[in-house]
Amino acid sequence: MDGVRLVSRLITRTAVVLVTTARGATNGVRTAAALATSRDVVDLVLRVKAQAYSIEAATPRHSWEWRVWEDVKLPAGKVLIPGVIAHTTAVVEHPETIAERLVTYARLVGRERVMAGADCGFAQGALFQRQHPSIMWAKFEALVAGARLASERLWR
């Protein structure tokens, strides 16, 4: 039995599946030739029975991947959770940037089917944090402000 079928049997329809196109967690060089993109794995990911799919979308390696959803239809009843804040930099995203990212996805898959999320995680365990907690919280505050702006624009 392949992994997707096994996972689909084990999880419920209310499970959230984290989809990441990043490879490895080191600070090594990331090149197009070395990494899969959402376009490479989206068909496989959508085979998993889940209510929502969380994808990396904020880092420079993934910020263009909203274009995948121009060609791929999100299945009915599913939610897309694009990462709109990046774990890879201490720079706090501007709320306008976050709003723009959310509006872009909402226009592609439907405003009721998009939820703001974070790329990957800010820590890979208790002993390894990618960012200082003050930066993490500032990023989440920006996420909230950006989501408010996007909601105002999408629900006028």
Task: Describe this protein's structure.
This protein is of the alpha/beta class and 156 residues long. It has one domain (3-154): TIM Barrel, CATH 3.20.20.210. It has helices at 3-10, 38-45, 68-71, 95-109, 133-154, and strands spanning 16-19, 52-55, 79-85, 117-118. It has a 4-stranded parallel β-sheet. Helix 3 (68-71) links the parallel strand 2 (52-55) and strand 3. Helix 4 (95-109) crosses helix 5 (133-154). The termini are far apart.
Secondary structure: elements and pairs:
Blueprint: H1 3-10, E1 16-19, H2 38-45, E2 52-55, H3 68-71, E3 79-85, H4 95-109, E4 117-118, H5 133-154
Parallel strand pairs: 1-2, 2-3, 3-4
- Overall 3D geometry? globular
Report the CATH C-level class.
Alpha Beta
Strand content: 5-15%
Mean pLDDT: 82
Task: Calculate Rg over CA atoms.
Answer: 16 Å
N→C terminal distance: 48 Å
CATH topology: TIM Barrel
* Number of helical regions: 5
Strand order of the largest sheet: 1-2-3-4
Classify the helix fraction into a percent range: 25-40%
CATH architecture: Alpha-Beta Barrel
Order of helices and strands: HEHEHEHEH
